[in-house]
Amino acid sequence: MTRDRLSVVVTRRLPAAVETRLSELFDTVLRDDDTPMTRDELAAAMRSADVLVPTITDQIDGALIGQAGPKLKMIANYGAGVDHIDVATARQRGIMISNTPGVLSDDTADMAMALILAVTRRLPEGLAVMQQGDWHGWAPTSLLGGRIGGRRLGILGMGRVGQAVARRAAAFGMQIHYHNRRRLHPEIEETYDATYWESLDQMVSRMDVISINCPSTPSTFHLMNARRLKLMKPDAVIVNTSRGEVIDENALTRMIRAGDIAGAGLDVYEHGTEVNPRLRELPNVVLLPHMGSATAEGRAEMGEKVIINIKTFEDGHRPPDQVVPSMA
Ligand code: 8YV
């Protein structure tokens, strides 16, 4: 007897190979154009599907989950962060949530390093000079940045991505410091020669570079608020490849404009695509459009994880990347 195939709705265009494999394995509905679904489209998808495959551009809140059809059994997120999904409500309704951790860590950490280098070595200013045809040759004192070797890097959130940043930064000669909900095992600390700071305030006030690598949760919202940003040394810089909500973006903008913080490298923003326009005007701020995990390899591996999670669930087992509310 053949079993009915699971019906899977994918909310965004995914890499072709991922879409093909999803269609081979499941009764898959793919998106025609690469725009986020409207709330009504999402609600309809959640009424008709057994499994929804959303991305960060879908806000799956409690109200939407409340309208889900009785068929919806699983939300297999294409992405590691699940702050756009009300995981607790989904769990109450018996809907399984999975994500794609691990396969994006190195790519995201590469981008954190790229931002640290771009800000401290003034890459955008150099690029602007070249693009404007304004270069009149080498000069001993032009566009002097700072040397990152020897600087103190404070990593806020020492999970997979934070540790991948630590590995890279240590190879660049930076001194590794971190703040985390839980202190790491001494052996892991030794690997990066990392110093743990129980007090985030104390760490922030002593670092040359701060890298945000914690997830967005109610307890990390505005962790870098105006009061804490003020603790930063005026020659320090901050980079964020995690979620914009961790930093009070307006306070950060004010402080960089006032010269109280030396610069910032941001890949994510507090209000999604609504980036504070003042940030865009600042020469010591490097802004990217959420590209941290944007490699062809990473996106393909994210797809593989989604497929493994759905398939394992279909076969009656616990998906390898199940998300439970306390992790979210
Ligand atoms: C993803 C990310 O690509 O995985 C995450 O948490 O932030 C991204 O870089 C995105 O979430 C896709 O849904």
Heterogens? 2-keto-D-gluconic acid
Q: What composes the largest sheet?
A: 7 strands, parallel
CATH fold topology of the largest domain: Rossmann fold
DSSP helix count?
Answer: 13
Helix/strand class? alpha/beta
Low-confidence blocks of residues: none
CATH superfamily of the largest domain: NAD(P)-binding Rossmann-like Domain
Strand order of the largest sheet: 8-7-6-9-10-11-12
Question: Looking at the structure, what is the overall shape?
Answer: globular
Labels describing this entry:
five-stranded parallel sheet, 2 domains, alpha/beta, seven-stranded parallel sheet, binds 2-keto-D-gluconic acid, Rossmann fold, 12 strands, 328 residues
Secondary-structure blueprint:
Blueprint: E1 7-10, H1 16-25, E2 27-29, H2 39-48, E3 51-53, H3 62-66, E4 74-76, H4 87-92, E5 96-98, H5 105-120, H6 123-131, E6 152-156, H7 160-171, E7 175-179, H8 186-192, E8 195-196, H9 200-206, E9 209-212, H10 226-229, E10 237-240, H11 249-257, E11 263-266, H12 277-280, E12 285-287, H13 296-314
Parallel strand pairs: 1-2, 1-3, 3-4, 4-5, 6-7, 6-9, 7-8, 9-10, 10-11, 11-12
The protein binds 2-keto-D-gluconic acid.
